[in-house]
Amino acid sequence: MSLSPEDVVDALQGVIDPELGRSVVDLGMVRDLRVDGGAVSLTIMLTAAASSLRAGFEEQVVGALSVVSGVARISLSFDAMSDAERSELAVRLRPAAGGEPGVSVDSSTRVLLVASGKGGVGKSSVAANLAAAFALRGRRTGILDADVYGFSIPRMLGIQEQPVVLGDLAIPPMSDGVKVMSVGFFLGEGSLVIWRGPMLHRALQQFLSDVYWGDLDVLVVDMPPGTGDVALTLGQFLPRSEVLVVTTPQQVAQEVALRAVEMARKGNMTPIGVVENMSYLEREDGSREELFGSGGGDRLAEAAGLPLLARIPFDPQLGACADAGSPIVREEPGRPGSRALFALADALFETPIAEPQAAAIP
Ligand code: ADP
């Protein structure tokens, strides 16, 4: 039996656009398909000309077609969609994204907010590494950088490019399986900080509604530090969110962190636990030195009525990896810091998603 274009299309159903999470056939990205004897040629229309996804598509197409009997030669080319084609694609994606204003993710998606009372405690580092650890464990993972006082997540995850915009939908670029979106991609460093009240509310709502996340198991959100109105506004647009509060062993970090827990409760977010960061330095012989005092995590956990979920060691490699654009859990999974972060990531998925509580503190 000779090879037909239908056989090829069937096989191409299995080729998935990693950013959009759907088949290139369903997305209408396959063009100029020709079958001539055993020779197959086709073009894949990319959402952006400078797409970093080419190599991945090539591998997938060759993988999918080489098992089809009768295929002897594959010639694959790429082209970029026109603006009109991109808008059309956005319309196809919209129904999946539509619904309530704000972040649109499925009801089975875990939304994990990483918060802190003040800056510099390692909140963004914990968020970026948790997201990378989830992805390494095979979970479909997104991270939203909402720390409007300093967008550090794209840098920590080595994202160089701006997101592709299809019509009015922004498609998060990927870092080794993690979908990455930053409020900073659109609003510019620091510009939100001067906004207040309804303007801020509208800008965030608009931004959060226009991101296409696709199917996710978990969305990690790097929150702004403190208890300002940005954090409260964000909470309103994030469905059923669980909050991790990051603190350090120091007394002062612990006091401001308690206010962040209280704010989360008032804002209908559900605090689920405390993470103490920079807890100790682990030497090669396994001995530990507490560099910044001790007990901050325990005291906060007790005062807030929450479990202490992790103590993450101080690890100079953690900062070095972030500066190089790849999180430590990915680069050096055996380091003490990585082990603590993986243990936290695993523990989080051992408990069911917390049900939203009625505001506990008046
Ligand atoms: P925040 O988001 O709370 O402002 P960052 O995640 O940006 O904090 O971290 C602040 C600094 O501390 C960064 O330079 C980061 O590399 C470093 N850092 C964070 N956690 C650790 C850790 N466990 N060990 C060593 N350095 C850390």
Which key phrases capture this entry?
single chain, 362 residues, alpha/beta, nine-stranded mixed β-sheet, 37% helix, globular, binds adenosine-5'-diphosphate
List strands and helices in order, with pairings.
Layout: H1 5-12, E1 16-17, E2 22-23, E3 30-36, E4 39-46, H2 54-66, E5 73-80, H3 83-97, E6 110-116, H4 123-136, E7 141-145, H5 153-156, E8 164-166, E9 169-171, E10 174-175, E11 178-182, H6 183-187, H7 197-209, E12 218-222, H8 229-237, E13 241-247, H9 251-266, E14 270-282, E15 288-289, H10 296-304, E16 308-314, H11 316-323, H12 328-331, H13 336-350
Parallel strand pairs: 4-5, 6-12, 6-13, 7-11, 7-12, 13-14, 14-16
Antiparallel strand pairs: 1-2, 3-4, 8-9, 10-11, 14-15
What do you see in this structure?
By secondary structure, the chain is an alpha/beta fold. The strands form four sheets. Strands 6, 7, 10, 11, 12, 13, 14, 15 and 16 form a nine-stranded mixed β-sheet that branches. Strands 3-4-5 form a three-stranded mixed β-sheet, covered by helices on one side. Strands 1-2 form a two-stranded antiparallel sheet. α4 packs across α13 and α9 runs parallel beside α10. It is globular. The site of adenosine-5'-diphosphate (ADP) has 19 residues, from α4, β14, β16 and α11.
